[in-house]
């Protein structure tokens, strides 16, 4: 019990525990929603996360150039890859061409994001998803490198999806 004053009537006391007394657990009841939500309706503050978008775009450029080199090496049947690797379908040269096309698309998407194009962001999300799937098929040829590229894809996807709003791309 926190005192014996009747609630709502200042100065009036009650000697009975059931009448007008406040239990200690009821004395400091507050709502979790007393503070207004920051940002409002799930929209991030303007400019917030722009660094992550820029990082994801630069990462997209890096992945695109890596895949360009990776695709050319696969087309040329370079000795960098594991010998006698078995693929789900086709061969190393076919996957090299697929990776080369995805690399060009990644570089185009990264340039579009730097220009502030919202459609380029969604295009980049799709291309990064395709690249992650492509690298899954490259695991038999070069396991560590393929898994590293998949990890970079996931980081870039997070940056583009979490903060890639129109307001952030416009700043």
Biggest sheet: strands, sense, closure? Answer: none
| Number of strand elements | 0
In whole angstroms, the N-to-C terminal distance is 56 Å
Number of helices: 6
Structural domain tally? 1
Strand content: under 5%
Supply Rg: 29 Å
Range of helix content: 55-70%
| Low-confidence parts | 39-44
Structural class, judged by helices and strands? mainly alpha
- Oligomeric assembly: single chain
Mean pLDDT: 78
Query: Globular, elongated, flat, extended or rod-shaped: what is the shape?
Result: elongated
SSE topology string: HHHHHH
Walkthrough of the structure:
The structure is a single chain. This protein is mainly α. The chain has one domain. The chain contains 6 helices and no strands. The protein has helices at about 25, 50-75, 90-115, 120-140, 145-165, 165-170.
Write the layout of secondary structure elements.
Elements: H1 24-27, H2 50-75, H3 92-114, H4 118-138, H5 143-163, H6 166-170
Quick overview of this protein structure:
The chain has 171 residues and is an all-alpha fold. The chain has helices spanning 24-27, 50-75, 92-114, 118-138, 143-163, 166-170. The longest helix has 26 residues, at 50-75.
Which terms summarize this structure?
mainly alpha; single chain; 171 residues; 6 helices
């Amino acid at each position: 019990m926190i005192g014996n004053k009747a609630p709502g009537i200042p100065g009036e006391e009650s000697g009975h525990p059931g009448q007008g007394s406040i239990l200690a657990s009821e004395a400091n009841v507050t709502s979790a929603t007393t503070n207004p939500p920051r940002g409002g309706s799930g929209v991030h503050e303007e400019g917030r996360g722009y660094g992550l978008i820029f990082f994801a775009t630069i990462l997209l450029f890096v992945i695109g150039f890596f895949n360009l080199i990776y695709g050319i090496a696969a087309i040329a049947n370079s000795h960098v890859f594991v010998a006698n690797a078995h693929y789900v379908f086709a061969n190393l040269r076919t996957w090299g061409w697929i990776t080369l096309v995805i690399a060009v698309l990644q570089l185009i998407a990264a340039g579009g994001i730097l220009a502030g194009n919202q459609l380029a962001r969604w295009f980049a999300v799709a291309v990064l998803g395709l690249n992650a799937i492509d690298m899954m098929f490259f695991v038999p040829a070069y396991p560590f490198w393929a898994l590293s590229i998949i990890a970079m894809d996931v980081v870039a996807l997070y940056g583009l999806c979490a903060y890639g709003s129109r307001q952030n791309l416009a700043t």
